[in-house]
Amino acid sequence: STIIILNYHKEVPTWGTPAEAIEAFYLNIPIYAISDVSKTEMNSSLLWWINETDGEVFRSTSECVKFIKEKYKLQTVQPEKE
Predict the structure, then answer these.
(1) Buried b (16+ CB within 10 A) or exposed e, 59-68
(2) pLDDT over 90 for what percent of the chain?
(3) pTM of the predicted protein model
(4) Could you tell me if 1 and 29 are in contact, meaning their C-beta atoms sit under 8 angstroms apart?
(5) d(CA 9, CA 80)
(6) CA angle 76, 77, 78 (to 5 degrees)
């Protein structure tokens, strides 16, 4: 994978395994988080890994998708009709 996208919600006690964040760091894979809490309320270890991988924290899925499409120059492809 070239990026990791995760959902971080206040009512969910975990954000995946710390090993995934460590692996992303060592492989230089950016971590992008979609969160319903402020950065000051996020798990500090996760926030550190996001920052160290040049990742970002977003407040919505649409904000994250827009950023990723622009950063990686992605285009939406419509399937051909038969």
Answers:
(1) eeeeebbeeb
(2) 57
(3) 0.84
(4) yes
(5) 36
(6) 120
For the stretch 26-37, pLDDT in tens is: 999 999 999 999
Rounded Cα–Cα distance for residues 13 and 28 (Å): 26
Amino acid 13 reads P
DSSP string, 2-24: --EEEEE-TT-S--S-HHHHHHH
Instruction: Give the SS3 label for residue 2.
Output: coil
16: left (phi over 0), alpha (psi -120 to 50) or beta: left
d(C-alpha 70, C-alpha 48), whole Å = 24
Identify the CA nearest to 5 among candidates 57, 75, 81, 78: 57
Amino acid at 72: Y
